[in-house]
Amino acid sequence: MDERFTVHAAGSIAIRGDSIVAVGDIGVDWDTADTVDCRGRVVLPGLVNAHTHAPMTLLRGLADDLRLDVWLMGYMMPVEREFVSPDFVALGTGLACAEMIRSGTTCFADMYYFEDAVADAAAAAGVRALCGQTVLKFRAPDAPSFEDSLARARDFIERWKGHPLIVPAPAPHAPYTCTTEILRACADLAVEFDVPLHTHLAETTFEVDQSRQEHGMPVIPWVKKQRVFDARVLAAHCVHVDEGEIRTLKEVGAGVAHNPTSNLKLGSGVAPITKMLELGVMVGIGTDGAASNNDLDMFEEMRLAAVLAKGMAADPTALPARQALAMATRLGAHAMHLGDITGSLEPGKRADLIVVDLEEPHNTPRFSRDTNAVYSQLVYAAKSTDVMDVMCNGRWLMRDRRLLTVDEAALQLAARDVARRIDMFLIQREQSVLQKLIAIGGVAEQESFEVQVKTRIASADAVVGAIAGDEITVIRSAHYHQYDTYFFFDDPAQGRLRYREDEFLDERDSVANARARLTLTGPSREATFGSVLLFRSRFFAPATHSPRFYREYFKPAREREVEKDRRRWLVAFRGVQFYVHVDRLLGPQAGEFLEVKSRTWSRRDAQDKAAIIMELLEHLGARPEDAIEADYVELA
Ligand SMILES: [Zn+2]
Q1: Cα(132) to centroid of ligand 1, in Å?
Q2: For residue 432, what are the contacts with CB-CB under 8 A and spacing of at least 6?
């Protein structure tokens, strides 16, 4: 796997300490303590997993067949916030190392929280790793704020820099989960300590569209403008990049981690790796985390990379087996900026190697006419279970399929216990719409109550005239166009969830700005007082996702849409503040309504306000006996 793809049909490798000292026809004059006979097998560089999140083995199979945002924001992040700790990370990484060693991986690029625990577990297992301490703009399991996560990254890099197996790195999660300040600070940190920077770039069209919208340019130029490429960048995904962006990646010397299974499974697309390789970008192969793959099998990944490239190009000569294996070894090491020490079997490089048994029926027979036949065999026929022996940094990690540095049974037992606890947490959460809302970081305003009365009116003019009268003081007024989507659930006790898009209309009735928010309305807690609704719990949350996200996340049993034009006044009447709404329903049913409401905090207060609200209603020219108990969504 050197630059010239030298194949030694017969030969030896001499290893001293942690390094390879000779390869090929090395002669016989060696005084050696340990000789391993590998006849009938293939010795090749240990595989390089260029992008993963090792601790996520503990979330393997937790939530699948979901869209990226629902998967990430709805499941991964809430569970991570609740469960991720140094112990969780150590356990997950131990399990990942067991799986990686078994499948022939000796080097991986990681990005997670509590990265110290990842580095500790990888070093204990004897596996080489580029460990990226995550930095992002949200509260993370290991840092309440971005300043804390940046401080943690600095501290982590200082502690691990110079370790024989671990290369520490800052890992700004992605441009859309970071601020420009975070991106720059991480790049500065990487430059200051001369370590790589690990991030996700251009994974989805959504990300690229958002970048164009917010910054007027796609992801790669934007990131370049923030000086991120001052650092030696390892960029995972790069699915949606054009040729100009690929040239930029090449110019700045960034490495790319291609994650075909994850990109396919999450429906993100296929990275244009054939073009990248053609233009000389260092492209490695990664499995991504076990929650989106769902394994860390690099044999599977390189085979998929090869066949997928052919399928995409409608060209069977695209990405030959030899190049796919190079991506999974030497090119991957270069993409991680570790190409000087690992990725090939050459004198001077670390002794990171694997021995693969090619005698199994699925590998039989073998041809020797073409020296490239061995690449085909390894990429298209061999399985990760054919890996027999694994060495990293001159130390055996597996001999004869027996792990030497990791206690698999203990890790599996502990992992099953974590899965039980996560199951219980999610079962409980899924029972309550409110808990699910809280889980996505939603609820901005806690439970509140209101008194409310609503009547159908023949014309809005009388109401508007009455508001202008002496007895009512207008505090402020506004005009909106509102689009409501109501989600209903089978259990009425769950209440209903409303997704509302408000367009503020200016004096000339053109849209001044818009906002979206969610309201979870519980069933009425108390009987209505006459036609006045007394108590109802309401939770508000800013709606930062699309209605589609909420539909897929909350899985409502039914939904309805209501569109209306609303004129709103905040008024004072008899010393009490009320909201007066004059609503014109536009769809699905038309009609004009008057709604008067006030926030309240106690039953006594509600009863007092209920009396005044009826008076106000009459004052506005509506008849209390016309009050309706139905809601717009019920009328609709
Ligand atoms: Zn990732």
Answers
A1: 11
A2: 494
